[in-house]
Every structure is written in C-alpha cells, then in structure tokens.
C-alpha cells in the first residue's frame, strides 16, 4: 500500500488525472447527463454518436496531436515553439493548393497531405536549426515564424480564402460513412499508437530526455544533441501538418487568419497540465494528451455554463496561474514534505528498547 502511494505520488500523471477527475466530478454535479452519449443521424444521413463527450474528444484532436510534438520539443530544447499555429496555416494552404489544382481523389489527398508535411517539416527545421545550431532560445527563434507564418500562408493563397468542395475532404473533417465516430478522433488514436511504438522500440525518448536533462553529459555519452533537437522540431512539423489538414477538412477552406489561432498557447498549457516540466527533461506524452482533453473539456464546460468566448480565455489564464504556482519549487517542497508525512512508515519498537 505504502509503495503504491509513493509510486503514484512520483508519477507525472498525478496532476493531469487529478485535474481531469475534478472536472468530471464538477460536471456530474452540475449536470448528471453532461457526459451522456446519444445516437443521431447527421445531415448526410449517417448514424453517428453525439454528445459532450464526443465534442470534447473531437474538438481536441488538433490540440492533442500538436501537444505530442510540443512535448518532444520542450523536453529536448527546454523551450517551446510558439509558431505552430502559423506553420499549420502554411501547411493548410499547401494542402488546399494541391487539392484545388487537381481532381480530389484519395491519391491526390495523400499527395496533398505529404506536400503539406514536407513544407511544415522544412519550416520547423528552420526553427530547429536556429535553436540547435545557433543556440537561440526556442521562444525567440520561433517568434520569426509566429510573426511571418500567416502572411506566408496568405501569399500562398494569393490573398484569398479558397474553398474545396469534396465529399472525401468532408469525410476527413467529420465522419466516414458507416463509422459513427468522428474521423479526427480515429486519426488521433492511430497517431498516438504510432508515436508510442516509435518510442517503445527506439531510443528516441531516452535520447530526448537525456539532452533536456543534461546536454553536456548527453554529448559526452555520444548523443548528437544538435540532431536530437532538430529531430524534435521536425516531428513537431509533422504534427502541425496533420493538425492543419484536419482543421482545413473540418470547414472545407483555408483561412490563414483563423486556422488554429492561438493553439500554440493551448499546446504549451497542455504540456504543463500533463505534468511535464517546461524546463525540459523527463516527459510524458500521455500526460500531454490528457492535458489537451482537459483544456477542451474546460472549454466545453464553460460554454455549457453560458460563458462568453472572450471570458473563456480569462478562465484559461486562471488555470495557467494555478499551474505555475503549483509547479513552483516552493509548493513542490511542501508537497513532498506532506507526502513523506502521509506515507511515513511507523517505527518498530523492539522489546530491548
């Protein structure tokens, strides 16, 4: 029992699971049917699942995917990429450009997706080069594309917001006929499984953590620290491309000004809620994914309580303040002292004493 409590207390998932539990309990008290599911028929005549739970899982799809890449970047470079929303707009613009230049078929959609991935990886590699080779702080290095990324997407679009009318694109953004679960949820599940397999059967996770914990020590042990940082940014580029394509598929057009706007702040918040240190080192991808769903659940909860979209950002700011305070060294010190008191084993007294 004591060992189990100690192991749980050390886990990075303690905070996100506790936060999720509080959110679930609050919603069940406020509205017992909040997480109920129902079967409905959508506008296309397909039988689908609906409800707040589906809305949370579906709405957080792009954020969950980007949070995975942001976690790796944070762990290796000890900083965050604030240009992910802008790069997603660029990737989405490339995706739409390829689709509009051809008849939309499955091979063309795959080609458009690969093109968006290549472009996003190139721009993310630019960020990674500034961080890995020129030793620029990640937030400063990515500020360049944070500022210039959406104008670049605007230039790719020729100053327009082109639309793509295709049932195939709608299937990616909503439902595949015969499958009642939204396609973005399925994409997240597949992507998380692929990343988990890569981390399980390669040294990517170990090397990433080593670089973030102690870069000099990692270099002395033969790890190419610059390459690991660059690789983490390139993986983030793939995540951004997937999220950008999902965002475009949802609405069937590209708007460089609004596509995944402010998602970089939510991604950083998801990483923090997931129990990961924003100073790099040990990370938990599952924690970040849970953090993404917590943010979306909080947003859906606030909307259900008739809170305006402007005020929602203020509530998120309160969450950020709480996280910063809870993760501060002072609070951690007292939390560890309290944990030691709670799980302290009683001293055995022998007869001689």
Describe the model.
- The chain has helices at residues 2-10, 14-30, 52-59, 61-77, 84-100, 106-132, 138-141, 143-156, 167-173, 183-201, 204-213, 215-220, 225-251, 263-273, 285-304, 309-326, 329-342; strands at residues 38-41, 47-50.
- The mean pLDDT is 89.
- The chain has 353 residues and is mostly helical.
- The two termini are 28 Å apart.
- It has a single domain (52-330), classed as ABC transporter involved in vitamin B12 uptake, BtuC, CATH 1.10.3470.
- The longest helix is centred in the middle third of the chain and has 27 residues, at 106-132.
- Strands 1-2 form a two-stranded antiparallel sheet.
Sum this structure up briefly.
The chain is mainly alpha-helical. It has helices at 2-10, 14-30, 52-59, 61-77, 84-100, 106-132, 138-141, 143-156, 167-173, 183-201, 204-213, 215-220, 225-251, 263-273, 285-304, 309-326, 329-342; strands at 38-41, 47-50. It has one domain: ABC transporter involved in vitamin B12 uptake, BtuC.
């Amino acid at each position: 029992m004591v060992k189990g409590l100690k192991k749980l207390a050390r886990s990075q998932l303690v905070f996100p699971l506790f936060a999720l539990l509080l959110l679930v309990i609050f919603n069940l008290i406020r509205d017992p049917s909040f997480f109920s599911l129902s079967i409905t028929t959508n506008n296309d005549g397909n039988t689908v699942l609906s409800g707040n739970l589906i809305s949370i899982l579906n709405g957080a799809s792009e954020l969950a995917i980007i949070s995975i890449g942001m976690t790796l970047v944070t762990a290796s470079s000890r900083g965050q990429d604030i240009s992910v929303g802008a790069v997603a707009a660029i990737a989405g613009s490339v995706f739409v450009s390829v689709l509009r230049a051809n008849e939309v078929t499955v091979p063309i959609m795959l080609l458009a997706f690969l093109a968006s991935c290549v472009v996003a990886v190139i721009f993310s590699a630019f960020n990674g080069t500034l961080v890995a080779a020129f030793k620029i702080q990640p937030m400063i290095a990515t500020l360049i594309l944070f500022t210039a990324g959406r104008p670049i997407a605007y230039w790719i679009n020729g100053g327009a917001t082109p639309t793509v009318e295709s049932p195939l694109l709608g299937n990616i953004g909503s439902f595949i006929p015969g499958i009642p679960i939204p396609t973005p949820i399925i994409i997240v599940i597949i992507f998380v499984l692929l990343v988990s397999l890569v981390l399980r059967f390669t040294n990517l996770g170990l090397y990433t953590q080593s670089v973030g914990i102690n870069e000099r020590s990692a270099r002395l042990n033969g790890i190419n620290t610059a390459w690991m940082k660059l690789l983490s940014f390139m993986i983030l580029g793939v995540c951004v491309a997937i999220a950008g394509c999902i965002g475009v598929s949802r609405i069937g057009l590209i708007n460089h000004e609004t596509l995944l706007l402010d998602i970089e702040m939510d991604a950083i918040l998801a990483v923090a809620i997931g129990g990961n240190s924003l100073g790099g080192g040990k990370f938990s991808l599952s924690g970040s994914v849970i953090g993404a769903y917590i943010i979306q659940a909080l947003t859906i909860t606030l909307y259900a309580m008739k809170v305006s979209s402007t005020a929602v950002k203020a509530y998120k700011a309160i969450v950020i303040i709480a996280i910063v305070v809870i993760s501060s060294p002072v609070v951690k010190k007292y939390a560890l002292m309290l944990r030691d008191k709670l799980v302290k084993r009683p001293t055995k007294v022998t007869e001689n004493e």
